[in-house]
Specification:
Elements (H helix, E strand, L loop, with lengths): L2 H40 L7 H4 L5 E4 L4 E9 L4 E8 L9 E2 L5 E7 L2 E5 L2 E5 L4 E4 L5 E4 L6 E4 L6 E4 H16 L8 H8 L7 E2 L6 H17 L21
Helix pairs in contact: 1-5, 4-5
Length: 246
């Protein structure tokens, strides 16, 4: 084989390598760019009408975490909702987390609550007020044999962003319906769909908050292709005695 032929083959192989390299770099960028435009602007997702989704005295819960919420009132002008939260014996928010944009403030109406605040256990008894500022890592546990009830001092419920409560109600439904929804990759696909609603960031047992935000954005187009939805009607909060939706 002469030198000219070898040089020609070498040049051809180099072109193929460059083409492959460019494809590896450019195609994901094109896919992500086009996917995000379609996901966010061309065919955006839609949550249900919150006035009908959150009915006064309706409830949703997590059998897995043994936590339930009762909807007391919805303020559409402020975009907030007032709730009571109950943690059954042995129940817990199983992962430490933080919020970027809201303070979580409530009153211990019943029982004894354990909070892990920035990694430090603290105990709150009936009649105490608790306030967790944005950016503070926390989770709550009920290590007693009695139900803990969290509300407000006037029993009108403590305030949370309605988008956050909506996302939580959907995730609780998915987590109880199928335990594989609680772990990656399904967990990350559901979070990608609920990204704009769910101001909740793990501070343990997962990647950094920056990585979590990138994952939610980047996985959204793929989640849409895989038929993940932002709204599943089956997990609509139910009134007392109301049969679950099928």
């Amino acid at each position: 084989m002469d030198k000219l032929t070898l040089n020609h083959r070498s040049a051809t192989n180099m072109k193929r390598f460059k083409f492959l390299l460019l494809s590896i770099i450019i195609l994901p960028i094109l896919y992500l760019g086009a996917g995000l435009i379609l996901h966010n602007y061309t065919y955006p997702t839609h949550t249900p009408e919150f006035r009908t989704y959150f009915r006064d005295n309706s409830r949703f819960s997590s059998k897995w975490e043994k936590i339930s919420f009762t909807i007391l009132s919805f303020n559409p002008e402020k975009g907030t909702i007032h709730v009571n939260m109950e943690i059954a014996p042995g129940g817990a928010q199983l992962a430490s987390h933080e919020h970027d944009y809201f303070t979580e403030s409530f009153f211990v109406q019943k029982g004894n609550l354990t909070g892990i605040i920035n990694g430090i256990p603290q105990h709150f008894s009936k009649g105490q007020s608790v306030s967790i500022k944005a950016g503070v890592a926390h989770n709550f546990l009920n290590n007693t044999d009695s139900t803990v009830v969290l509300s407000s001092a006037d029993n009108k419920g403590f305030e949370l962003p309605v988008n956050y409560v909506y996302a939580l109600s959907q995730l609780y439904g998915h987590w109880d319906a199928d335990k594989t929804n609680r772990v990656p990759p399904k967990l990350y696909f559901h979070l990608a769909m609920l990204h704009k609603q769910f101001d909740y960031w793990l501070t343990e047992k997962g990647p950094s908050k920056t990585v979590q935000k990138i994952l939610r954005i980047c996985l959204a187009p793929t989640a849409r292709l895989l038929k993940y939805e932002i709204y599943d009607y089956r997990f609509t909060p139910l009134l007392p005695g109301e049969a679950p939706m099928e």
